[in-house]
Amino acid sequence: EPALDELALVAEAGDGGPLADLASSLPQVAEAQSTMAPILPGGSAVYEISSKRRFGVLSVVSMMVNTNDAFIAINSEQLPKWRHSTRTTYALGYDAGSEGNNEDCRFVPGPACPAGSGNMRSTDDAEGYVHIHNGVHGIADLAADAYDWRNPVAKIEIKRIR
Questions:
Q1: CA nearest to 64, candidates 46, 91, 88, 89
Q2: Of the listed ranges 49-53, 92-96, 97-101, the one predicted with least confidence
Q3: Bridge partners (DSSP) listed for residue 18
Q4: Which of 36, 113, 154, 160 is the right S-S partner for 91, CB 3.0 to 4.6 Å?
C-alpha cells in the first residue's frame, strides 16, 4: 500500500514528529516519541519507554540515511513480560515508495553526499507502495561497495527494567 505522508516524511527527511503525533492520537498507542538524533552504522542508542499492561507491544520506525526514501521498521514486537528479561528483534530496510531510488546526491540526505547538496524530492519512478528495499546499486553518486546493505539492517534489543 502507499506510505502515509507521515511515514514518507520519516523515510525521506528523518522527520518523525508528524508520525509520532499521528500515533499519539490512536487509542491503542500508549506513547510515541520522535528524535532527530542520528545513529551511525555500527552505533547504538538507548531509549526508555513506559507502558501499561494493556500496551504490550513496541513499534519502531527510523530513516536510513544515504537513501532517497528508505526506512527501518518493526511493527508490534511483543515487550518482555518478566523483569530484567530481554527480547531481541531485527529490523528490515523498507522502501517508502514515495521517491525514485535515483541515488543522486541532489535528492539524498546523509553523510555520503556533500554538505548542502540538497534533499530535493524526486517522485520520478517512485514505486507508489511500501516494500522491502533492494539496496544501493551505484547508479549515480552512491557507491554500492560503500553504501549498500543486506537485511536485516538494525538489531533492536528491548529490555524490561521494572
A1: 91
A2: 49-53
A3: none
A4: 154
